[in-house]
Amino acid sequence: MMIERFIRNYLPAAPTLRKQDAYFDTASVLRGAAEPAAWTDDVHQAMQFLSKRVEISKCIYESYQESGAKASASRLTAELQPLALALLFKDFRRLASDRNMACAVKRLNAILKLLDSLGAENIAVDPSLVSLINTEAEQFLTTFPRTDTPLPEMIATTQMAVDIGILPITVLFWEGPIARAYLATLKSMGLKPEKIIHLISKNDLVSRKPIGRFLPGNLKLAYAQSRQKNSIHFWSTTLRKTEKSLYHSIRKTVENKLCFSDRDVDEALALGDLNGYSPDVETLMIESLADVALYDRLRSLPQTQILFTGGGIVPKRLLEITALKFIHIHPGHLPEVRGADCVLWSHLMKGRTSATCFYMAPGIDDGDIILASYLPSLTPHLEVAGIDVRTLYRATYAFLDPWVRSFVLRRALVETAGFTHIAALPQNEDASVTYHFMHDRIKRAVFAQLFSEE
User: Fold this and answer.
1) End-to-end CA distance of the chain, in Å?
2) Distance separating alpha carbons of residues 199 and 283, to the nearest angstrom
3) Which domains does the chain show, CATH number per domain?
4) What percentage of the chain carries pLDDT values higher than 70?
5) Residue 3 to residue 132: CA distance in whole angstroms
6) High-pLDDT (> 90) share of the chain, %
7) How far is 319 from 451, CA to CA, in rounded Å?
8) 350-394, pLDDT tens digit by residue?
9) For residue 59, what pLDDT is reported?
10) In DSSP terms, which residues pair with 305 in a beta bridge?
11) What's the chain look like in SS3?
């Protein structure tokens, strides 16, 4: 086989000495996998381990701890990186042949990221291997089987069964399209959260430098809030002007398929004063979600539920505050679609977008499920071949992802009478699949499906 020839050519002649103190010594693992004998389960697991590392970091290190953290700060030698590429490609072929599509596409995601990394580092790869990878990647993505996951019975009403008025939750508000869509959804249902804690970053979100160091307190707060709002909504504002057809196609889909009114979408885009959404709004300037000021403030709250709207990874110690339960909406059907870019992965792997309302726990999208649901078919009819992937990606996360989440938030509120009658269920770990940020080549294939004009 041609791939075996590439592997032989990239295998160094000199023997590789295993690092005895390393859980995963990459060089020795690669040499073992390159031997001509049939692969064992150990080799398959090693390829899976390595693939995950590449998906996350886009590169390969000399050694790793059992947790997956790098055990060495040094990258794998340039001599061995093409060997890793060839071996991952061999594993991709195996998985694709076995029709193990979830693992195959994840392996391809790692291969494409590693190929980009090798190019950026000017590490030579046989052009024939690059051509083979590109050809088979294109064929795989073009012929990727379309799955049409059955749609569960939808709740017809979008209103609360009981008019509870004040919703017994605290919204941890981090400015952005998601938080704005949530507040617009609550308002459309006649609900006001009992409290909003508005988190404002002390640092510029791009430069990470402190904001307004020499301004007095109130002016500093107002200036930081304005900078944060303008920064986070930059692409939303820009794309509405520069990509009007794209924006309106997504908006029309949100309104027609997810049953949000024109008024709801306008409400979210208006970026109105938070005092119009809750009788109790307070602001808190923080360095990050790990800021001790946030921990102390949340720890002082009476027993309540927290609707998380973003801002980073929630530290474990916040989740361990016994009086609080954090509610999060993940844009994927848990546990089958965990991780990053799940509005795209869900569409690729399940044939439709999905989202899950759940109680947060330490770990990636861990925690008991309040409501998991697939969504109606979303097909913003638009020819997108001439639109670059980055623009499509930004538009998806500015205008579609927030309403995918809000659709399930609305359903969860109705089914649980405003989060007052919840029967949360543990996740089935046997069904768990975790996805990582998607390579642009795979994104392009997903967008071609998502915006299909069929």
Assistant:
1) 39
2) 6
3) 2-142 (no CATH), 166-450 (3.40.50.170)
4) 95
5) 9
6) 80
7) 38
8) 999 999 999 999 877 789 999 999 999 888 888 888 999 999 999
9) 94
10) 169, 325
11) CHHHHHHHHHCCCCCCCCCCCCCEEHHHHHHHHHCCCCCCHHHHHHHHHHHHHHHHHCCCECEECCCCCECCCCECCCCCHHHHHHHHHHHHHHHHHCCCHHHHHHHHHHHHHHHHHHHHCCCCCCHHHHHHHHHHHHHHHHCCCCCCCCCCCCCCCCCCCCCCCEEEEEEEEECCHHHHHHHHHHHHCCCEEEEEEEEEECECCCCCCECCCCCCHHHHHHHHHHHHHHHHCHHHHHHHHHCHHHHHHHHHHHHHHCCCCHHHHHHHHCCCCHHHCCCCEEEEEECCCCCHHHHHHHHCCCCEEEEECCCCCCCHHHHCCCCEEEEEEECCCCCCCEECCHHHHHHHHHCCCEEEEEECECCCCECCEEEEEECCCCCCCCCCCCCCHHHHHHHHHHHHHHHHHHHHHHHHHHHCCCCCCCCCECCCHHHCCEECCCCHHHHHHHHHHHCCCC
Tokens of 157: 């009403």
Amino acid residing at 137 = A
